[in-house]
Amino acid sequence: MTAELMIGTELAAEMVANAATRAGRLRAETGVQPCLATVLVGDDPASATYVRMKQNRCRKAGIESRSVVLPAATTTAELVAELAKLSNDPSVHGILLQHPVPGQIDERAAFEAIDPGKDVDGVTMHAFAAMAFGEPGFRSCTPGGILRLLQAYDVPLSGAHAVVIGRSPILGKPAGMLLLASDATVTYTHSRTVGLPDIVRTADIVVAAVGKPNFVRGEWLKPGAVVVDAGYNEGNVGDVHFAEATAVARLVTPVPGGVGPMTIALLLEQTVDAAQAQSETAVQPVAGLA
Ligand SMILES: Nc1nc2c(c(=O)[nH]1)N[C@@H](CN(C=O)c1ccc(C(=O)N[C@@H](CCC(=O)O)C(=O)O)cc1)CN2
């Protein structure tokens, strides 16, 4: 079997074009300029690259991008204060804190300092609860992008056995919740899981989000499985051994060109959603009192 590739690039381009149209309309009709604030702590080169990619794509879509870069020695209190300031700034509609943050920072405390209405990256507990209950709300961008991709390729989710490898707060955990909310039967696995290959072999859908290059081997896969590679390792190498997986699976996401572009497209889409929602709830000036 040679797997069909689930390409994210084209779908992502459509989503970005749609976000750009909606941003332009919002600007024309209400004067509101959608704005995403990106917050980068420290000098990790890969994180800096991802943030730059997000800023560039925002600009191309007519979304303002405001950049906050903090030193590697930033404390939790300093980062929380910065995020609280952005949360209270009415000209900022979405906030992205690039993960991971340096080890001395309590990342959960930092994420929770983001106003849930501006959490366009879906990292707060508020967003997580909405994903878990299948309620409307912002989605974590990579998991939300994965679901869009699976839907675009008509992958049946209801009743499917999905094995998620990895339990990070921005990837594995919310991916499992979104699949569960779509009626998949979800098994979470992680670094302490015993007998991982045998568990993966029972999966109709595999979501690999471990951060280890070529970790998932072809012999672990059930013939005809759907394989989503959410790895973003150095050198654009995924978590799945691509050549082996395509020989066994029915559908596979490539790296690059699969899940990555969907992540950024959903971030832009949710930023425009946030700007629109905030424009609708903003206090309007009372006529004659301006
Ligand atoms: N706060 C967050 N932090 C991180 C997230 C996230 O969604 N929110 N995700 C990852 C990395 N990431 C975005 O930050 C990311 C990684 C890769 C890509 C991407 O589009 N990759 C391309 C290839 C790269 C290239 O073209 O040079 C691809 O797969 O085609 C987007 C986003 C960690 N942190």
From TrEMBL:
Q: In which pathway does this enzyme or protein participate?
A: One-carbon metabolism; tetrahydrofolate interconversion
Q: Where does NADP(+) bind?
A: 166-168
A single GO molecular function term of this UniProt record:
methenyltetrahydrofolate cyclohydrolase activity
What cellular component terms from Gene Ontology apply here? cytosol
Query: Taking every annotated instance into account, which residue ranges of this chain make up the domain Tetrahydrofolate dehydrogenase/cyclohydrolase catalytic?
Result: 8-121
**Which UniProt key words apply to this protein?**
Amino-acid biosynthesis, Histidine biosynthesis, Hydrolase, Methionine biosynthesis, Multifunctional enzyme, NADP, One-carbon metabolism, Oxidoreductase, Purine biosynthesis
**Positions of the Tetrahydrofolate dehydrogenase/cyclohydrolase NAD(P)-binding domain:** 140-278
> In which domain of life is the source organism classified?
Bacteria
Catalytic reactions of this protein: (6R)-5,10-methenyltetrahydrofolate + H2O = (6R)-10-formyltetrahydrofolate + H(+); (6R)-5,10-methylene-5,6,7,8-tetrahydrofolate + NADP(+) = (6R)-5,10-methenyltetrahydrofolate + NADPH
Pfam families (alphabetical): THF_DHG_CYH, THF_DHG_CYH_C
Q: What does this protein do?
A: Catalyzes the oxidation of 5,10-methylenetetrahydrofolate to 5,10-methenyltetrahydrofolate and then the hydrolysis of 5,10-methenyltetrahydrofolate to 10-formyltetrahydrofolate.
The entry assigns this protein to a family as follows:
Belongs to the tetrahydrofolate dehydrogenase/cyclohydrolase family.
Partners and quaternary state?
Homodimer.
Q: Which HAMAP family match?
A: THF_DHG_CYH
Task: Identify this protein by name.
Answer: Bifunctional protein FolD
User: Species name for this entry?
Assistant: Kribbella sandramycini
